[in-house]
Amino acid sequence: VRLGIKIALALGCTVNPMSQFSRKNYFYPDLPKGYQISQHDHPLGEHGALEIRMKDGTGRTIRIRRVHLEEDTAKLVHLDGGDTLLDHNRAGLPLMKIVTEMDIHSAEEAEAYLRELQGLLRNLGASLANMEEGQLRCEPNVSVYEADPQGLSLRGLGKHQTLNKKREVKN
After folding, report:
1. Which of 22, 41, 66, 96 is the most buried (most CB within 10 A)?
2. What is the pLDDT of residues 35-90, one digit of tens each?
3. Distance separating alpha carbons of residues 159 and 147, to the nearest angstrom
């Protein structure tokens, strides 16, 4: 909890005077008990931002929606040939989630955001944040946009409006 508050403050979040753990009920193969303990509805902190620097030197602000704690789930390991293994070694361990607003619009911006976040977590002593060791993971929600090259609206949608083709990419 202390590290979560420390990170929320470093991200410029408002730290909520009250946070609460609740049961988030859903079925998924990596959640065999059918629920997860989470602060999803009453997070530690909300409404922050992280400044990122792109390779071309330009800067951007990525808004942070919330920082909350929850328990980790099991891990699905998909094997060649179609078999799937379930690894329960991390299930139930504490996990902190940092949820952004929909401000990341390219793979380059996602990379810059994750590198900046990784540096922040390491500098705060909160985590080594090594992705290859599962200490930093991301679950991007990808929305497909269709833009008209002349900037005109398509199918009644304004320029750069979503076509509601949102997909979550796990870990």
Report:
1. 66
2. 999 998 899 999 999 999 999 999 999 999 999 999 988 888 899 999 999 998 88
3. 6
Q: What is the DSSP letter of 78?
A: E
Considering only CA atoms, which of 91, 90, 4, 74 is closest in space to residue 39?
4
Give the bridge partners for 15, in sequence order: 45
* 48 class by beta-carbon count within 10 Å (0-12 exposed, 13-18 middle, 19+ buried): buried
- 75-78 vs 35-42, strand pairing mode: unpaired
In the chain, DSSP finds a helix count (H) and a strand count (E) of 2, 10
Q: Quick one: tokens of 139?
A: 């679950």
Indicate the SS3 state at residue 133. helix
| Residue ranges in the chain assigned as alpha helix (H) | 2-10, 107-123
CB atoms within 10 A of CB 39: 22
For 144, other C-beta atoms within 10 Å of its C-beta total: 10
Ramachandran region of residue 156, left (φ > 0), alpha (ψ -120 to 50) or beta?
left
Q: pTM to 2 decimals? A: 0.80
